[in-house]
Amino acid sequence: MNHWERIAPDWVETMQVRAADVGTRVVADYSENLLADLSAGLIDLAMTYIPRQQPGLACELLMEDSLVLVSTTPRKVTRHWQPEYVFVDWGAEFRASHYLAYPETRAPRLSVGLSMIGLDYILKHGGSGYFSERTVEPLLEAGRLHLIEKAPTFQRPVYLLHPKEPINAELLNLAKSTLKDVVAIDMRQERK
Q: Where is the LysR substrate-binding domain (predicted)?
C-alpha cells in the first residue's frame, strides 16, 4: 500500500495498453494479507516487503526503498522522545532497526500503519517521521519537508512474489515486466 501513489497508477495504465483484452484487478493491502491471497490463488502477483519463501511461490527483488527521517522544520536528529514524532510502522524489521537506533525513545503519540496517513498528518499539523525517500523527494525539493541531519536511514527491499507455476505464464511475465519497467522509469525520474 505504501507504493500505491508512485507505482500502481502507471502500472495499471501501462497494463491497460499492453494487455487491453485482459481484466486487471488491483488489491492494495498489507503484505500478510497479500501473501495469503497469493497462496490461495486469489491474486497472481504481489509486491511486498516480506521475502516469503514457501512451496509454490517464487520471490524476486524488485527494488530497494530508503526510509529517511524528515521534519516540517529544519533540525538535527535527537535520541530522546519528540512529541511531534509520527511512527510509521514499516514492518517487523523496521521496528527492530528503529529500536536499535533509538533505544531511549518511548512510545510516540501517534503510530500509523500506512505512510500516507502519517505524511498527511505531519504536513497538516507539523512533525517528523520516517518515510520513503521516493515519496518525500518532491516535498523536500519544494521546502515543505527537511531531511533531519545525521539521522540514520533504513533500507527496505521490495519483493515481487508470484506462483512458480502460474496459470498463464505469458500474462504473468507481461505483468512483471510492466511493473519492472514502471519502477525503472520512476527511479530514473527520481535521479534527475
A: 6-166
Query: Is the Cβ–Cβ distance between 116 and 76 less than 8 Å?
Result: no
Under 8 Å between Cβ of 140 and 66: no
Residue 126 main-chain phi, psi, to 5 deg: 85, 160
> Nearest 5 degrees, angle CA 148-CA 154-CA 156?
135
What is this structure's pTM?
0.79
Backbone φ and ψ for 66, nearest 5 degrees, come out as -95, 130
CB-based contact 15:44 (threshold 8 Å): no
The average pLDDT across 99-121 equals: 89
Give Cα separations from 107 to 97, 114, 118 (angstroms). 15, 17, 15
pLDDT at 108: 87
Query: Count of CB atoms within 10 A of residue 117's CB?
Result: 12
Give the CATH fold of the 65-155 domain: D-Maltodextrin-Binding Protein; domain 2 (3.40.190)
26 confidence band (pLDDT: 50, 70, 90)? confident
Tell which residue, 135, 124, 144, 138, has the closest CA to residue 72: 144
At 157, phi and psi to the nearest 5?
-70, 145
Q: Top-level CATH class of 4-63+157-191? A: alpha beta
Residue ranges, comma separated, of all CATH 3.40.190.10 domains in the chain are 4-63+157-191, 65-155
